[in-house]
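dude i think i finally got it to work??
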Amino acid sequence: MGGAGNDGLQTVTIIIDTIPLQMGDVIYKEHITPIINLREILGRHTDGMIGNNAVFNRPLLVNYTDGYLLSLDSLSAPLLEGYTKLPAHFNDNRIDIECELKIDSVQSVKGTFRLDLGCGSTIILTNAARKGLDLTGKPQAQCYYSNMGVGGDGTDVNFRADSFKFLDELYNVVVSASYNTEGALSDRAHLGIIGNDILCHYDLIIDAPNNTLYARRNGNDDNSYQKSSKIHMGYLDRTDITDGWIVSSMYEGGIAQKAGFEIDDIILSINGRPVKEISWEEQRKGLGLTGSTIYEVKKKNGEIVTYILVIDKEII
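look at this
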């Protein structure tokens, strides 16, 4: 099985049996189901992944405005009002679309990008696309991930691009570019993937049976695609197996690394509040931490230490 990460293809256990999955009135039956270490990638609040095969047999409305998916029997003119048909290509239930990423006044990346409804990021360029750029002199931040996907660990570099055009243009976009030499972000026909930090500004209708993609700009005016990390590390909620959140990624030279944080540290509490008490809803919306912030941390050797981060500036 393939996926993001430097280790490339991995051998995984599979269940060879019929496993039904019901989503509303949609019932999907899979006959071969892989078992992967998904919680090591996404944390305790995700039990599985639903692939495009399960939902692309009918048109699918992806409504980011109100937060729901709707499987449609058919498309009508009233339903398509306000939507624009985009130049998309469907191949093996994957969606590729022609877009342009303007790095600066001189450089741009124009071509095929892949929609990834399971990605929470903005734009991630492949390693091959990154190699074609000159980022000299551009503010950037390199980040290491202990578990980027099925394929293991990985590294990328974050920087700001002038704009990205999907349906319309979004400006001052924080972009990641892969250093992976194996896996889905190494060298592919597409230039990169488009994640939900971009897609959430549109409502989509994916008409896979007719190889058509529609989009319309919604009322989401947040600027999440312009934001980079303020704590300069990432973590996974693993309170199902530990006392806290496991540090899973680290920005080189960031405030977390300088304070002493390391990959696989376990964050026990923040400002005296045990992280076990912090709900998924709070985590999803962001904790809004700022200023002097106290972290109680359990190290690999079992030692309990305290780190103080002065949370102020974004990493780029």
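The longest strand covers residues 152-165.
im so relieved honestly
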